[in-house]
Structure formats: structure tokens, C-alpha cells
Amino acid sequence: NTGTGFADVPNAAPYSGVATNTLTITGATVTMNGYQYRCVVGSCGGDINSNAATLIISIPVSVTTQPASITVCQGAAASFTAGTTGSVISFQWQLSTDGGVTYNNMAGAITNTFTLATTMLAQNGYRFRVIVTGSCGPVNSNGAVLTVNPLPVFTLNNLPQTLCLSDQPVLLSASVGGGVWSGTGVSGGTFNPSVAGLGSKIVTYTVTNSGCSTSVSSSIQVNECSDRHVPLNKFPA
Question: In the chain, is it the N or the C terminus that has fewer CB atoms within a 10 Å radius of its CB?
Fold first, then answer.
């Protein structure tokens, strides 16, 4: 009770040596944190009390949730988090670029979560772990692997910039196959100006690889092309 009252320590577990100059506590528990102890020494002039000593119980730290490996697309963010218990004093994330053989501290990465705002292909295969330090010493988490998949790279193949409303459908193509074309007037891999209608129309080609997508768009202007119109009275017989 924070030193406002003392009682004799019983000569029973977890105590031993209660009638000697050394008191031993075996298997101290968290509930005993803050307990105070003093020694009463018999004297000719009466009992003498020692100063009180406080027992501080520190809970060893433990990583209860290991940081998980993650797969992202090039340029996306990636986060690693460790769940812990115990009397945590500090966190320090470390990076390994050699498959977990060696780790080095990362400056400023001192919380239970580490985030890369933008990932690069060069970081594929990097491993991340955190050192959790408590009163009873440090504990290392497992290493989590970062996998970075590349974004598809391609170009559109000479799409027309201008068409007439009366033109036939135009075949659309790109340097990489297997993608999906979309936009007004687009059906499958063709663009039909009569379906798209007049004006500037956007056609987009999207390629997805390993869950990572890239889209490239191009504008096609559909015009009336009135010079193609022939009045009925001038139409060849």
C-alpha cells in the first residue's frame, strides 16, 4: 500500500530468508509490482526499521503478431506492423538486402509500424524486421519479405488521330497483346466512328500482369466530313 503500512512477511512461498539480513523472492508476479519491503532489526534500544525498498516488476517483451510479407505493384505503398506485449521501451526497424543474412537499422523507423510510401523494383526481395526493446532486453521479430511486381510497359501502335463519321471501323493495336480496349465506340479491338459519334473520343488500352495494371489512352477526333456528302440531284445514275 505504497508504504503507508507494513506487515511481517510470512515465512512461505514466494518468500524465503524472512528472518535473515537477506529476503529472497522466488517467482515474483506482476501483481507484486510496486510492493515495498523493509527490514526490522532488534536492538537494545528497541527495533530499528531500514529504509523501504520498492520491487519493480518488468514484463518481458514479446512479438505476438509478426510482420507479414507483402506483395505490391511497383510504385505502391507497403506497410509492416508488429504486435507486441510487455513493457516496451523502444522499436527499431531493420533492413536486409541479402536475404536475411545481415540487417541494418533504418533511421527514423522507431514505431511498431514501418511504411514505404513508394516501392521500387530494386526493393524486390528486401526483408524487414523490428527489434523490440524492453526492460528485460531486446527481442527480434521475424523478417518480412517485400515482393514488388513491375507495371506492364507498352505503347499504342499508330492509332488514327482523326476519322470521319462515315469511315469504316478501325482496328486498334498495341505493342503488347492480351490487354483490354475500352471507350465510346470501342468494341473488342476496333473503334467504330459511326457508333462513337462526333467529337473527341478517348480510347484506352489496359494491360494487367500479376495483378498490376497499366492503362494508356489516346484521343480520336471524329468529324462530319461534309465534303463526302453528295446531293441526290448530283448522285451518279
Answer: C
